[in-house]
Write a structure and sequence with these properties.
about 500 residues, mainly beta, 3-stranded antiparallel sheet, about 5% helix, about 75% strand, elongated
Length: about 500
């Protein structure tokens, strides 16, 4: 009979951290106009991974760091620079194979800036490499007639695809005058909502653009532009899908148009939308088994894998006041802000709440009483409760934070106030455990029960399956002779089983 036991295999996929490294990137910047650099006002750095290749036991990362620099020269003129530098990182990772599907999260963990005639920047960039990993287990799928099995349905996940596309965004806004120079231009994109159905992924998001410029008369303006966008992508049809998306600025530029006395600021951006498609597949497996005719020995396997559960996108307003240090010039008027970044420090989830903690960082430009331009770095710590209960529980959280609209006000000559709109996209992963029967050994035949009656004392919570297995009979036989049983058992008692003796 044992050869009639039918076996199969279940497979599930999950995202796993397979390698981490830190790489040093050095960059030197000389004066743009040959005039001596006297004061650095702001340096904004953005690292991006441009390509990742999987080799046998190694992954190769190609990246690029964009630098946006604002400084004063010896004539007290503001100069803006926009540069980039490329880097390569090779990381040993025994789990990586040439066909591995890899993604990389990259962050700056340390920055050192020296100023001595030229600007020297040293960055420490951390790269975390994730691979889509597959676990496979043999399972019992079907049994012969002299066996009875209890089945359960488990859900396995398949990372079906990563769909990428470019959303082209164009928006115009009045400059409210004649623009002298664009000093700094920064963009970021957030995901507001993702849905999938009928073979289409619909991604809704928002582009935030921050433009700092001067008018022809030397006055400053800080214009913030918000642009909603929608992108549609193809998705596999006919399966239960979960989708989460990420948005990154691929290219962006600002163009001046309009009339001479009323310029138009035109924002042009290409946003790369990367949507990860996860298919949830239901697999029926044998969870328990017994034989009426033979003793058996079962072998079980436990499948433990990280499972993607849900993601949430939300915004939260935070604020704070900042006092200037004693050696800094007092504030006469605020000119604008640069390089706002929402840096997540920790993500925690419990049964009744989820919390994200981090720091909002930006640089504020201001004039002092002598009309000299100064800058001050601002850091505002925050702790935000996530309101969506979908990610409450024993979950591991990961995600990104972005900064939206920001208002900076002068409160006193040595104090300023920052009010910021922060955005978050958080994903929840948990351990999914399933125990399955991987093998059954059929042993000796059971001795024939010569009793006309068997009595079984039930315990609270027992099921029909528990009783049938204990009596080594069919579940139907238990029900036919004990019609008043209710499952699961609430009131322990006796179950009688009568046999016809030959």
């Amino acid at each position: 009979m044992a050869d009639e036991l039918k076996y199969g295999e279940i497979k599930t996929q999950y995202k796993k951290l397979v390698a981490s490294s830190q790489v040093m990137v050095d960059f030197n910047v000389e004066s743009k106009d040959g005039k001596r650099i006297t004061k650095i006002l702001s340096i904004v750095t953005d690292p991006k991974v441009t390509a990742v290749d999987a080799l046998n036991g190694e992954c190769v990362i190609n990246g690029r760091v964009n630098y946006k620099i604002l400084y004063l020269n010896e004539d007290n003129e503001i100069v803006s620079l926009d540069y980039f530098s490329d880097y390569k990182d090779k990381i040993s990772a025994k789990e990586v194979l040439p066909n591995s599907r890899l993604t990389v999260n990259t962050d700056i963990v340390d920055i050192t800036i020296n100023e001595d005639g030229i600007i020297s920047i040293s960055l420490v960039i951390e790269n975390n490499v994730y691979a889509i990993t597959q676990e496979a287990l043999p399972v019992l799928k079907a049994v012969p007639d002299n066996y009875f099995d209890e089945r359960r349905t488990i859900t396995v996940q398949n990372y079906a695809d990563t769909v990428k596309s470019l959303a082209e965004v164009v928006e115009e806004a009045s400059a409210d005058g004649t623009v002298g120079r664009i000093l700094m231009f920064d963009t970021t994109a957030i995901i507001d909502k993702v849905s999938a159905g009928n073979g289409i992924i619909t991604v809704e998001g928002t582009l935030f653009a921050n433009v700092l410029y001067t008018y022809s008369d030397g006055n400053y303006e800080n214009k913030q532009i918000t642009v909603p966008f929608t992108e549609e992508q193809p998705a596999p049809a006919g399966t239960t899908l979960q989708v989460f998306s990420e948005a990154e600025i691929k290219t962006s530029k600002v163009v001046l148009a309009g009339t001479e006395d009323n310029n138009i600021i035109r924002i042009e951006a290409a946003i790369e939308i990367a949507s990860t498609v996860i298919a949830n597949l239901e697999e029926e497996v044998v969870a328990d088994v017994f034989s009426i005719t033979h003793e058996i020995n079962t072998h079980t396997e436990k499948l433990v894998a990280d499972k993607y559960y849900d993601s949430v996108s939300f915004g939260e307003n935070v604020g704070g006041t900042i006092n200037l240090e004693d050696n800094m010039p007092a504030i006469n008027n605020i000119l604008g802000y640069l390089g706002a970044r929402n840096n997540i420090a920790s993500l925690k989830s419990s049964a009744d709440k989820a919390v994200v903690e981090g720091i909002l960082s930006l640089t504020v430009l201001y004039r002092d009483s002598e009309e000299t331009v100064n800058s001050v770095g601002v850091e505002i710590p925050y702790s935000v409760n996530i309101k969506d209960s979908a990610i409450f529980g024993d979950f591991t959280l990961e995600g990104k934070g972005k900064a939206g609209i920001i208002n900076v006000k002068r409160r006193r000559d040595r104090e300023l106030e920052v009010l910021a709109e922060l955005h978050f996209n958080i994903r929840a992963y948990g351990k999914d455990t399933a125990q399955v029967i991987s093998e059954v050994e059929e042993l000796e035949a059971k001795a024939v029960n010569g009793s006309a009656v068997s009595i079984y004392n039930t315990g609270e919570g027992e099921t029909l399956w528990d009783i049938a297995k204990a009596l080594s009979c069919t579940p139907d036989a238990v029900l036919q002779q004990n019609e008043d049983l209710v499952f699961p058992v609430k009131n322990p008692g006796r179950v009688m089983l009568y046999r016809v003796l030959e």
